[in-house]
Backbone:
């Protein structure tokens, strides 16, 4: 009976340590996810602002087209390199 109790106590300690490290890892990953989501939201807002700006000033269109943010105009020919 004492051996069974000792095994249970050792297993409980092992599982407690695993739980501690796994929850710490989850907390770290959650903070990284929030950081990436904030960056993604910032970029989405920046793209929306650039698209709105391109309506008033089409000089930005080549930059947006080069970065595949805005589709190329139907009447333009692709440039040969």
Residues:
């Amino acid at each position: 009976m004492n051996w069974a109790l000792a095994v249970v106590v050792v297993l409980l300690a092992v599982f407690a340590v695993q739980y501690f490290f796994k929850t710490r890892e989850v907390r770290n990953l959650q903070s990284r996810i929030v950081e990436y989501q904030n960056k993604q939201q910032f970029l989405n807002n920046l793209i929306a602002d650039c698209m709105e700006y391109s309506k008033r000033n089409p000089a930005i269109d080549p930059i947006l087209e080069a970065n595949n943010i805005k589709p190329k105009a139907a009447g333009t020919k692709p440039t040969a390199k």
DSSP finds two helices and no strands in the chain. Residues 25-71 form one domain.
